Fold:
Amino acid sequence: MSIYLHFRAVAESEIRDDHTWLAAFMSEAWEDRIDEYAAGIACSINKGWDSVNDLYVAADALGTDADEPWILPIYGGRPVAHSADADPSRPPLMLLEPPGVSQAAHFLATVSFDELWNVVGARFSALGWTRQELLDRHRDLQGFYGRAASAGHAVVKAVWA
Structure:
């Protein structure tokens, strides 16, 4: 079984702060993901997003910034609460507003992947991760957040199983 963390950039003015609406929006985006990946407005990580987050947490050891921007790319944002009539089986959703998207993009553009890997690489290699796998995910997120920030977009995150 695959579990994905799905990211979708969207203009903040197009978002309804309603779990039922956002779940339907993200479901449609998931169905269109191939085209949306090609358009640069979506990306996803299969199963390993917690490891990508752990890679970014290594920035704390580097002392890069007291504001902890390394939290933003994966787990940043606020949960979108289910309404009373929402289907509880719908995916968990997070919304990262444009200022947070800009902070995440800046962090991803300025952090040194090599320095992060130097901090956590031995531990990740022991767990079966390769440097190239994490570098590919980092580059995907770097491009995605960079485009979203340039457009002034928010990012909606959903977990799909």
Notes: The mean pLDDT is 90. The chain is about 55% helix and 15% strand. Residues 98 and 139 are 20 Å apart (CA to CA). The two ends are 7 Å apart (CA to CA).
